[in-house]
Amino acid sequence: MAKKIIKAAIAYDFDGTLAPGNMQEHAFLPSLGIDANTFWTEANKKAEENDMDEILAYMQLMLEKAVNKQLSIKENDFKKYGKGIEFFEGVETFFDRINIYAKSKGISLEHYIISSGLREFIKGTKIAKHFKNIFASGFEYDVNGVAVWPALAINYTNKTQYLFRINKGINNSYDNSEINKYVPENERPIPFMRMIYIGDGETDIPAMKMIKYQRGTAVAVYNPNERAKKNKRSPKQICEDLIQQNRTDYIAPTNYSEGSELDNIIKLIIDKISVEDRLKKYTK
Is 51 exposed, middle or buried (0-12, 13-18, 19+ CB in 10 A)? Predict the structure, then answer.
């Protein structure tokens, strides 16, 4: 008798979770000759002065700065900036390794991005091929393929809707009729209890709380190389607060290598998903 295969999913934040810093800082801002702190300060000021969503503010500012510098802003240009993004240790080999491990436990594992960063940048990275969908902020393009307007802005609160899209098998950002339609949990492609969310901090709190409430698993990761600064806690301290406040299930450094703390945690969660699925037959 063929072994039953069940579907599970891991959803990842991007900046600070898979790659250090903000993705714009790897290649885009250097190409403009703009200091990262200067850019983010200006973006936050724009948001405050206009009572504006911070994601929309930084996206609009990116276009303004690029136009002023006469820098091409077509989709392929943004993808090229994604090629310059460097990842945390073990990330580039993690997906194939964890897929093999999940398969050995009877699980078909899908990977998704849920990020306030740019989908165009992420699509240009070395790891883009591993994701079934990249739910991230992105631009609208005119007839000449030039970015003209923010098409989608994903902030820390609306990240939660994309967990529901994964749960219900909705692979787009525009269809709001399907996401609001009632579907019994046992008929959804990926039940929440088979979902893992990995994020790096406070902007992931709503997603982590929601996935925990729905009996999925939240993992908070931190860059161990970043220390506390004046009036700013270290990433590790932030993650320790999250677990003490019951906002996440586990914390680990951002090392995805074989045998790392994070690698072991994810494998144990996969083990748990597999065992819980096998135990279900005894509840009937």
Answer: exposed
